[in-house]
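notes to self, project folder thing:

trying the whole complex as one job this time. last attempt i did each chain seperately and stitching them together was a nightmare. two parts in total, labels are on each line so i dont mix them up again. if this works i'll redo the older ones the same way
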Amino acid sequence: MRRLPVYILIDTSGSMKGEPIEAVKVCLSDMFSTLKNDPYSLETVWVSVITFNKEAQVLFPLTELDKIVVPKISVPDDGPTHIGRALELLCNQYDAEVRNTNVEQKGDWRPLLFILTDGKPSDILHYNNMVEEVKLRKFGNIFACAAGMKAKKEPLLQLTSNVLESASIDAGTFKQFFQYVSVTITEGGKSVQMTPDIDNPPEEIEIQLDF
Amino acid sequence: MSQLITVKATDGTYFDFIDEVIGSGAMKDVYFSPDHKYVVGFFRNNQDGRSIDRLMNIVGIYRDKIFKQAGGDYFKDYFCWPEKLVEWNGKIGVVCPAYNKKFFFESGMFKGKEKEGKWFASAKLRNKFLPASEKGTWLNYLQICIRIARAVRRLHAAGLAHSDLSYKNVLVDPQTGSACIIDCDGLVVPGKYPPDVAGSPDFIAPEVMQTKTLKVGDPNKALPSIYTDRHALAVLIYMYLLYRHPLRGGKVFNTDPAKDEELAMGKFALFIEHPTDFSNRPNYKQISESEMPQSDIDKRPYTLVGPYLKALFDRAFIEGLHNPEKRPSAAEWEDALVKTADLVVQCNNSKCDSHWFVFNNNEKCQCPFCGAKFKEKVPIFNFYYSKSKGTFRPENYSLVIHDNGPLFTWHVNRYVTPNEKINAKDKVPVGDFHCQRGNWYFVNRSLESLWDFSNSEKKHIKPGEQVELKQGQKLLLTTEEGGRLAIVQFSEN
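result (full assembly):
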C-alpha cells in the first residue's frame, strides 16, 4: 500500500506567541482526530510537522497517522522568521523519508506540503534558493497560508499559486487552513469528477516502461 | 431552538425538516426530518435543467421501476433511494430515508460514524483498528456480497447503472450481514443522462481510466455504464472476501506514482493472481506487516472462495478485465454467491476470526484463514437436474450438510431461487439433517414425493419419515417439474 506523506510547516516565530500558537495547537489536534476517523487517511497517510522561527526543527518526523502524538510546541519571545531554513530542513527530510518509485519498487504517493506563516521570510536569499530546491522535489500539491497583517503573500506565490491570505491571526483562520488540509488529504477516496482538466498542459511527457 | 421548516415537494406533498445542518457531504448539506426517519440533502450548487430532470426521474419513474414492482418492498433495505425532490431558498434538495441504526458504529473509537465499506475491506484497517465485535464472520461477508450483487442486479434489470459503486457508497454491517447502496442520485441511464463522475479510485474500470483524459463528447471516451458497474462489483466482492485489491500488485508501470496508478488501474491493469503472467504478483518485501496475512496470495489464494466464484473472478479479472462484455453480470455473481453459501463449513478452531470457510473436498481440507484441519466427515449432496424425463445430469452444484442444517425448496427444485421473488411458503425448510452417533439422517418434513432410488426397489419417504444417508445414495427430492436428484457423497478428509 502506497503511503501519502504530508509535510506541515508551522511558523513559531515570536509573533505567534500566546493566543495564535494555542489556536494552532487546537486546530492541529482537531485535524488529527478528524483524519483518524477517516478510513482512507488511516490506511495511507503519514505526517511530519516542521516548526520554524530563527531555527527550523522537526517537531516529529514522517509518522503513521495513528501513531502521532503532538508534542509541546514552544515559541521564543522574539526573533526572525527563517522560512528558507525550514524549506532546507524540509528538503533534507524529504530526501531521507520519501520513498521514490523506481523500476523495482512502488514508492510513496507524491507528498503534500502545507505551510502556515504569519510573517515573511527574514532569510529571503536563502528562501529564494530553497524554493528552487523544493521545486526539484516532486510534491503533489503545495498549499500556503499567510495569516495576519504582517504576512506577505508574494514570497509564498513563488512556491505555489495556492495561497490563502487572511488579515487576522486567529482561530478562524487556522481552522479554515487545517480544514483545507484535511479535505485535501482525504480527497484520495472520493469520487473522481467526470470532466478532466483540459485547459492545463500535461505536467510532463509520459514515458511508458514496458518490461 | 431550531426552526421547523415546511417545503412542498414536486409530487405535491409537504416535507418538514429541522433547520440545523447535521452533516455536509461533497455536494450537499443535510438536515433531519422531525422524527429523524428522513433526511433532506440540499445541493450547495445550483442544479441545471438536466440535473433536475434526472433527479425528477430518480424520485419518480426509476424509483417506481424498482420499488413499485412485484417484490419491490423487499429492496427498501437494499437501497437508500431518494423519495422526493424539494426546493428551499432556491436550492434543490433530495429527501431520502435516514440510514438504518445498524449502519453506525455502536461503540469503540468510531462510535457514531457511518459504517462505510472501506473499514471492512482493508486489511490494515481490519488488523489495526476495527474492534473484533464489529468484524463479523466470513459468512457475513458472503451475505453482504449477496445483498450488493442482488441490489446491483435489480438496478441493472431496470436499465439503470449506479456509475459510482465503491465501498464509500455501500454501507455494510458485518454483524448482521447487511448492506445498503447509498448515493443513488448519481444514477446513470445509458444514453440518456451522462454521468457526473468517472467512479472512485480502486473501482474505476480500466477502459474508463484509460480514456479519462479524453474530452467529454469524444466517442472514444469510455463512460460509466452497466459494464463498468460490473467491474466495480467484482472488485467489491473480491475485496470483501479477500481483503486486498485484485489489481494492486508489485509491478511498476511508471516511476511517477500518479502515472503508475493510472496505468495499473487502466491500460496495463493486470490481475495480481493471473495464472500465467506473474509480473504483477505482490512484492512481499514492500507489504507492511499490518496488511498481512491478507495480502499473501500464496497462503490465501483467490481459489479459497470456491469453484463458482473462482470462475467468475477469472472472467472479471482475466478475460473481462479489458473486455467489458465478458465480465460476469450481477445476476451471475448473485447466483454464484448464493451457491457458495451452501459450501461453507464452520472452522474447528474456536479462535479463528473467520469462523467459516468454503469446504474443499480433499483429505487435507483445512481452514484457509487459520490453517486448522477440518476433522469431521460430512455428507455432501451433489445435485443433478433433469433435462428430459428420467435422465439426470450433474449441475455443478453441491450442498455441504451440517448437523441440524436445513434443506430448502431452492435445493429441491431448480426453478426456485432464494431472492426477492420467493414466497413465504418456500422460506420454510422442507427437511433437516442430523448426525447421531456418527450416522447421518435426513428428516423429511414436507416433501410429498421424495424417493430413494439407491436400491433396485425405489422407496417412498413420506413427510415425517427419516432416511439414513449412505455413500452413493440417490435421492429424487421431488417428482415435480424442476425437481433435483441428489447423490450423497461423504467427504474424503
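what i see at first glance: The first strand of chain B starts at residue 4 and ends at 8.
need to look closer tmrw
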